[in-house]
Amino acid sequence: LGDAAVSVPTHAGFDHSTDPQLLADHYAEWTRLQAEQRAFRSEVAGEYDLWYLLQHDDINEAFKDTELFSSRTVQYLGETMQTLLPEELDPPEHGKYRRILNPSLSPDAVAKLEPEIRERCVGLIEEVADAGQCDFVRDIALRFPTAIFLQLMGLPVDHVDELVALARTILHTTAEHDPDFSIRATAAFEIVGHLTAAFEARRAQPADDLVSALLAGSVDGRPLTDDELVGMGFLLYLAGLDTVANVLSYSIRHLAGDDALRASLSSDPERWPTAVEEFLRFYSIATTARVVTRDAEFAGCPMRAGDRVVLPTAAASRDPHVFDHADTFDPDRPANRHMAFGAGPHRCVGAHLARLELRVAMEEWHRRIPDYAVAPGAVIHEAVGAVAGMDSLPLTWTP
Ligand code: HEM
Question: Rounded to two decimals, what is the model's pTM?
Answer without folding.
Answer: 0.96
